[in-house]
Amino acid sequence: MQKLFKFPNLIRRGMNIWPPFRYSGIKITELSADYRRTRVELKYRKLNLNANRTQYGGSIFSMTDPIYSLMLMANLGEKYHVWDKSAYIDFISPGQSTLYTCAELSQQDIDLILDRTQFGEKHLPVFNLQVFDKQHKLVAKVERTLYVRLKAKYRT
To answer: For residue 150, what are the β-bridge partners?
Structure first.
């Protein structure tokens, strides 16, 4: 694990004061020590509502943005490029309260990525997230495709 990622609580706090999160009411409430589980909340507040007085869709989308990239960078280490490639959101119901999502990364996910990229090939893993409100009602489904590849100096 990279030096940067040795302190998950520091990373969590740093992400929580990062302007795109802080000013949107987004907060990482849990980040496991092994970077395999992350819980994110989007506060319901006046500055974050759309014309219908529900959670702004862009903020819902943003709460899922860097999560899998962060988790993978911590687990794969500094030899890898990890970027978001594409994403898709399906809004199911209006967000009328604080929202949350949980992301999990399994050893199987990591092993598959390592296997597919070991000779320098790019791999495009897909991760799915569900966003819920306080009553555990589904608000949105998000599909994120990442780009993972060994950095050029580590390719064979």
So the answer is: 80
Distance in angstroms (rounded) separating the CA atoms of residues 139 and 144: 16
pLDDT at 1 over 60: no
Q: What φ, ψ does residue 135 adopt, rounded to 5°?
A: -90, 10
List, edge to edge, every strand of the sheet that includes 26-31. 26-31, 37-42, 99-104, 126-133, 138-150, 80-91
**Residue the block writes with tokens 């990279």:** 2
> Looking at the predicted structure, is the pLDDT value of residue 83 above 60?
yes
H or E element: which one contains 61? helix 57-62
Which CA distances in Å does 151 have to 54, 83, 85? 42, 12, 16
Q: Which residue has the tokens 């004061």?
A: 17
> What domains sit in the chain, N to C, each tagged with a CATH number?
3-154 (3.10.129.10)
Nearest to 93 by CA among 55, 141, 138: 138
One-letter amino acid identity for 29? T
* The residue type at 43: K
